[in-house]
Design goal:
With 630 residues, this protein is α+β, with helices and mostly antiparallel strands. It has 19 helices and 20 strands. The strands form 4 sheets. Strands 6-2-1-7-8-10-9 form a 7-stranded mixed beta sheet. The chain has a 5-stranded antiparallel beta sheet with strand order 12-11-15-14-13. Helix 3 packs across helix 4. The longest helix is centred in the C-terminal third of the chain and has 87 residues.
Length: 630
């Protein structure tokens, strides 16, 4: 990772380790390197391999209108609603993150153009910024020329309206290309585009670890305008940031930007998105807790409120009862629950005040005035403390909206004794009240245990959900890697098929050439087994197609040449050609020539035997000899 960062400024340290390892192992296999340490040494000595590894890590899997249901919903429902909004500006802006070779950016432009035609609008335009880390992918996207195979994902109507066909390839029409601006950009390190109406980041975050994913989603929220649309991949969700986005169609991963959140601060980017090269691994934060970037604003707002209005010990809790801020000494009223760390108020409140305060929180949520609880007894190992409690639902400042403040005031001992002086009626019902009190305590304990069990189950379900989400992302990553490899194999297969066609044509040419010479030829391998022969050879040696692979010694011939096998072996041993004139059983003469079979790479790979009919020459020779004697 350090070598990649130094070479190209790109930090891959926040990518998923499993994905990184698989891609690195592919490069290691190409170079037959068995360990990561040896491969790291190889990278240091070969800078060009770093560039190849960089390209290997960028998995560019995309297509036109991928996941057709998403684009259909976008064209028929989401985009028309966006265009019909009177608050929307005339010029819309979109950002396609990780655009690869441009198919998705062009798909968005086509869908927008179709929506404009359907609504008969002429005064709206869309500027699409499409970015990717790979310069090669950006270059391909800018050309806008794609193979004929895109007709499987693009309808014939769209091909006719938005593409031009030339030499078997489809080019994106000029008006669609003018809507898209391509640029090389690292979403992790470079500044984002802002004031966006549409942001598409599909199947990019599946390659990032959880820490980086938790930084990108608030960044996307910051980049979008009010009501802006976010598109994610089918294995990606907003996760714990559901407070930032409202699902438009959760199954299709379409979301709208939610307003009135706490992520609009001026210093948001600097605080929530530090340089990734110095990032540490984060611990998973429960969804009920506030994000880390809120703590500073939350503390400041809570401090100001408590100092201005309330001086006694107090806590601030959210709607679920989780404590988000503590002021003063609250040990007399709260204590950590046994077991796993739990910062929920209902688990930490001491006996005697837990149930009344829980009831008071419900009342405070339904009214604007503070709820006053007097004369509560907080039980502890040191005894009991009489306390008055005030509960107030908070609406201001914005950082505390939807939360509650609980303020504790100790009651002096003298006042407590006065309150506790029993009347005659209280004395007569003391026993009954004691029994009721014991029953209430038992019910409270049962409720507490049930609440803790439910909370534990909820945490387990949340953990399981996060594991399933991670597994789903991993499966999608593997699927895209396999799709990328499949495309590479298809390209290689097409090249091999062309070579096979060329080879088949060459074999046909050779066979026709050999047969046209009208010369009998027999080709033998290094073991003197038949590998191929011409048709004329079968008239001299008893051969048929099933004899390919049989030893020469097993064949019968009409030639009176019992030493044929021995001469062939001698030629292979000495590499010296042999030529003899042999008489056949039917009275014909043949010139039998045995030569080594030499391949183009100068390797001897068998022998070639040619049989030339010289009967006419022999007869002429005999006649001339007779005439010479006469």
């Amino acid at each position: 990772m350090a070598l990649l960062l130094a070479r190209g400024r790109h930090d891959f340290s926040s990518y998923k380790p499993s994905t990184l390892r698989r891609r690195i192992e592919r490069r290691m296999a190409i170079h037959s390197i068995s360990s990561l340490a040896r491969y790291a040494d190889f990278l240091e000595k070969n800078p060009q391999e770093i560039d190849l590894l960089f390209k290997e890590l960028l998995i560019g899997v995309t297509s036109f209108f991928r996941d057709a249901a998403v684009w259909q919903h976008l064209a028929e429902t989401t985009l028309p609603a966006l265009l019909a909004s009177s608050a929307r500006e005339k010029k819309l802006r979109a950002w396609v993150v990780g655009c690869s070779t441009g198919e998705e950016a062009y798909s968005l432009a086509i869908v927008f153009e179709e929506a404009m035609q359907r609504l008969q609008l002429r005064d709206r335009t869309l500027q699409i910024f499409a970015t990717d880390l790979s310069p090669d992918a950006i270059a391909t996207a800018r050309r806008g020329v794609y193979p004929a195979s895109i007709d499987t994902s693009v309808s014939a109507e769209r091909l006719a309206l938005f593409f031009t066909c030339h030499e078997g390839r489809y080019g994106v029409s000029q008006r669609i290309r003018d809507m898209v601006l391509f640029a090389q950009q690292d979403v992790v390190l470079d500044p984002p585009f802002t004031k966006l109406d549409i942001l598409s980041c599909r199947n990019l975050m599946i390659y990032f670890d959880a820490a980086l994913q938790r930084r990108l989603l608030p960044l996307f929220h910051y980049s979008l305008r009010a009501g802006g649309i976010l598109l994610l991949g089918n294995s990606e969700t907003t996760g714990q940031f559901d407070r930032l986005f409202t699902p438009i169609e959760s199954k299709l991963r379409l979301y709208a930007r939610r307003e009135n959140t706490h992520f609009d601060g001026v210093n948001f980017l600097a605080q929530s998105f530090p340089p990734l090269s110095t990032m540490k691994m984060e611990q998973t934060v429960p969804t009920s807790r506030l994000p880390a970037q809120l703590h500073e604003n939350l503390q400041k707002a809570a401090d100001n409120l408590l100092l201005q209005v309330y001086a006694p010990p107090a806590v601030v809790v959210n709607s679920s009862g989780d404590i988000v801020y503590i002021s003063g000494r609250t040990g007399k009223y709260l204590e950590p629950a046994a077991g796993k760390v739990n910062w929920n108020f209902h688990a930490m409140a001491r006996d005697g005040i837990r149930l009344p305060i829980a009831t008071g929180l419900q009342r405070a949520a339904e009214q604007s005035e503070p709820v006053q609880l007097t004369g509560l007894q907080a039980q502890s190992t040191q005894g009991s403390q009489l306390v008055d409690v005030t509960i107030q639902a908070l609406k201001e400042p914005i950082a505390l909206r939807g939360m509650f403040i609980i303020v504790f005031r100790d009651v002096p001992a003298a006042a407590g004794r006065r309150r506790k002086t029993p009347s005659a009626l209280e004395a007569s019902h003391a026993a009954a009240l004691q029994r009721c009190h014991e029953e209430i305590l038992a019910l409270r304990e049962e409720a507490r245990i049930s609440r803790e069990e439910l909370q534990s189950t909820n945490e387990e379900l949340q953990s399981t959900n996060e594991e399933l989400q991670s597994a789903n992302e991993e499966l999608t990553t593997s699927k895209e890697e396999m799709q990328s490899m499949n495309e590479e194999l298809q390209t290689i297969n097409a090249e091999m098929q062309r070579k096979l066609d060329d080879l088949s044509l060459a074999q046909s040419d050779m066979k026709n050439l050999l047969n046209s010479t009208d010369i009998a030829m027999l080709f033998l391998d290094q073991e003197l087994n038949v590998s191929r022969y011409t048709e004329r050879t079968s008239k001299i040696i008893n051969l048929r197609e099933s004899d390919v692979g049989r030893p020469l010694s097993d064949l019968t011939t009409s030639l009176q040449y019992p030493a044929l096998q021995d001469d062939a072996c001698e030629t292979l041993r000495t590499l010296v050609p042999s030529e003899k004139q042999i008489l056949s059983n039917d009275g014909r003469w043949f010139a039998v020539r045995i030569m080594p079979y030499r391949r183009l790479d100068n390797v001897i790979d068998g022998a070639v035997i040619t049989f030339v009919d010289i009967t006419a020459a022999k007869e002429l020779e005999l006649r001339l000899r007779r005439e010479a004697r006469d």
